[in-house]
Amino acid sequence: MKRYFFVFLLGFFFALLVTEALASEVKVGGEIRVRGESVSNGTTGTKDREQIIQRTRLNVDATIDEKTKAYIQLQDSRAWGSDGTSLGEGTATDNASTTTTISGTTATSTTTVNSESTDIKQAYVQFDSIADQPLSLKLGRQVMAYGEHRLIGGFEWSNTARSFDALKLMYNTEAFGIDLFYSKMKESVTNDTTDFKTNGTTEDKDITFAGIYAVIKAIQNNTIDLYALQDKDDSTERSVLTYGLRLNGKFSDLDYTAEYTLQGGDNKKSVSQESNALAVKAGYILKDIMGLRIGAEYDSATGDKSSTADKNEAFQNLYPTNHPLYGFTDDIGWSNMSAISLNVGLKPTETLWVGAEYWKYSLAEKDASGKDDLGSEINIMARNSLSSNVKCELSWIRRNGGESGGSDYYSRAISKDKTADFVYLQVNVSF
Known about the structure:
The protein is mostly beta strands and 431 residues long. It has helices at 2-22, 196-199, and strands spanning 25-41, 49-65, 68-79, 100-102, 105-108, 117-127, 135-142, 164-172, 176-186, 207-216, 222-233, 238-251, 254-268, 271-273, 275-286, 292-301, 311-312, 337-346, 352-362, 373-387, 390-400, 419-430.
């Protein structure tokens, strides 16, 4: 812990000194977030589990000149009592969950990553008003998020969250905006001294993620998103192409979101990708009843048929923030699924919001036993802002297992007709 903490502070103060020397304006801020979690699973042989996790961030935002700015954010993530330093036992590995698989289909990327780490969360430079146009270039480690984060998200629920090592070109006006980005997800170097092309040996096998995302803002209170994305893994000859359309907005007291996306290309060598996904939700606000909102949602994504070995029909969720798009347990993602939700929310006061959700899940492609029931989930939530910089969340989640499975928040199986409860209290202070 001492080593991590020293590196953390050294990096922060070095960044602060450099930016103060070079910048015309420097802002220093940060965040401390603490969350207590408790999970009980009624499945035989499964023990209750609880932990307290903490995330600490320090950031420097520097204006270099009227067209250039830099941003550096350091982050420390840990679970209380996990590293042994309180007992003088040294540093150990923190808890980390695993990816959930239901009926042979990967449901979602890991969403409860709490691995201990002190690292650079963001570090980028941004050039604005290029050629005196509304054109900007952001270069470096950064957070990217689009739409509802169904395909690209910052994954802030996770204690470590997600960053992209990316280059992003942005053109933005009041009526229209478009981003072009390229991100290196994994760098694979097999032999730094070999001329691969000359010697004919195996080339580096990188994973890259690139795309174009456009937003049309010409219609008041409504937006139209269009995107094309490429997720490419040279080691498996994977090149999945994702094309989509998203509508979002409101008309008076009615709000709505609808997104449809198609995938093609190659899932791996000799296996094509042919899949699609849909998300539709709407809500109506009754302003005279404490801002009561009544809503409904339907989400679906194709699954893979075992009879089609030459193609993969399971929709690929890419790099999302699944929590809390499909509930809070996080064992359901936008792949081989169908989900229906009814939800309500209201604001008793200016600072307090309370809500409830009911989710029903099923598989898009039935499992080997011909069943598709993934159970259900009930969520009761409360969020309160003690001030503009202090926010609290308290939620209770009950996950019911179905005939085809289901998992609790820590990715442990829930037997049919059994339940798992998840309770958390989170406090977030920003400065």
